[in-house]
Design brief:
Blueprint: E1 14-18, E2 21-28, E3 31-38, H1 44-47, H2 49-52, E4 61-67, E5 69-74, E6 79-83, E7 87-90, E8 94-98, E9 104-108
Antiparallel strand pairs: 1-2, 2-3, 3-9, 4-7, 4-9, 5-6, 5-8
């Protein structure tokens, strides 16, 4: 057995597709990492909620924003924007949507194992 694992999101182990978005997921080191690409107009509560089966996203995200902008509204009503260059932890219980005319692209280490899968 090798002392390393190497994979590329350009050859993902799994692809999760939704209207206006997709996640390219690789599995390694006992976990999953996803390259998530969300197009303008994407909103979790409209495009992923029907699959997840929950009122809010329950994925615990730990993300690096590569490009674009996402607005997040937490269950407690607090809100923030994540933009290119930001590293963000988003706890379960949130909605999110793309802001502006550019795709939002992020790498997620924390929630890839449940994002876009039935949760409810």
């Amino acid at each position: 057995m090798s002392d390393y694992e190497l994979k590329s999101v350009s050859a993902p182990d799994e692809v999760r597709e939704f209207p206006l978005g997709k996640g390219d997921v690789v599995t390694l080191g006992g976990g999953q990492v996803a390259l998530i690409t969300l197009q303008p107009g994407w909103k979790w509560s409209e495009h992923v909620k029907p699959v997840a089966g929950t009122d809010l996203c329950q994925a615990p995200h730990f993300q690096y924003m590569i490009s674009g902008q996402v607005h997040v509204r937490m269950a407690d009503g607090s809100e923030f924007d994540a933009v290119a260059g930001d590293v963000v932890v988003i706890h379960p219980g949130h909605d999110a949507w793309v802001v502006g005319d550019a795709p939002a692209v992020t790498i997620d280490w924390g929630g890839a194992h449940v994002w876009g899968k039935p949760q409810g």
